[in-house]
Design brief:
globular
Length: 143
């Protein structure tokens, strides 16, 4: 059988030993093309369930707050930590995960995120201090 360049033989999986998967560069802040996702090295070793989550990150105790939602919290926080996520969190160096809440569907998580973004700061701080009074980084518990 003749296999031309750029083609795979029947039964040849794209992630077989002969064809290594394409992986995004591991440099912090590396430019990604549309659709690429930068993940921590260990993300491919363990199959995780993707659960919708709303989270709050900050730079320090009583510092700036960012509220976001995702289906893969470990990867998303890692992206914030290396500065791969452009916008508010990178501009103000927000890297400390201080609060998160699990949801059944992404629609519920997105709705909760939008509602929480309208809250005043005191409510957000109270929510964090209920479960994390020292404002420690919860990312270590995830990884």
């Amino acid at each position: 059988m003749i296999v031309r360049r750029g083609q795979r033989a029947p039964g040849d999986h794209p992630f077989s030993e002969r064809t290594p998967p394409k992986v995004a560069p591991a440099q912090a802040g590396a430019a990604l093309s549309r659709g690429e996702v930068l993940r921590p090295r260990y993300a491919f070793k363990v199959a995780r369930e993707f659960t919708p989550v709303v989270y709050i990150i900050t730079d320090k105790t009583d510092g700036r707050l960012y509220i976001g939602s995702t289906t893969d919290l470990t990867t998303r926080i890692w992206q914030h930590k290396i500065g791969a996520v452009a916008g508010y969190s990178r501009r103000y160096n927000l890297k400390r995960l201080v609060w998160y809440e699990l949801h059944g569907t992404m629609e519920e998580a997105a709705l909760r995120e939008r509602r929480m973004k309208k809250w005043n700061r005191a409510w957000k701080v109270a929510r964090i201090e209920e479960s994390n009074p020292t404002w420690r980084d919860l990312y270590e518990d995830l990884a």
